[in-house]
Amino acid sequence: MEQGRIKGYATDEIVGKDFSLFYTPEDKEVGLPRRALGIAAEEGRFEAEGWRVRKDGSRFWANVLSIPSAKRMAP
Fold first, then answer.
1. Which residues fall within 8 angstroms of residue 3, CB to CB, at 6 or more apart?
2. pTM for the complete prediction?
3. CB 66 within 8 A of CB 75
4. 10-57 per-position pLDDT tens digit
5. Nearest-angstrom CA–CA distance, 75 and 47
6. Which one, of 35, 16, 32, lies nearest residue 24 by Cα?
């Protein structure tokens, strides 16, 4: 499914932006986006369910799987 259909962003307006845009203010406040990246880097993946935020500010429930990119994993 195309990214914009769920989150409301066109590809050209979201690529290169910090993924924490999709997290709620409450999750950002407690550092969840950075913690998720840390876990993905250390363990090879991070999976969780929770509220995420669309471009228009509305929330949706999501199952999220984050994995490190191969480029960043290379020695």
1. 9, 11, 14
2. 0.77
3. no
4. 888 888 899 899 999 999 999 999 999 999 999 999 999 999 999 999
5. 24
6. 32
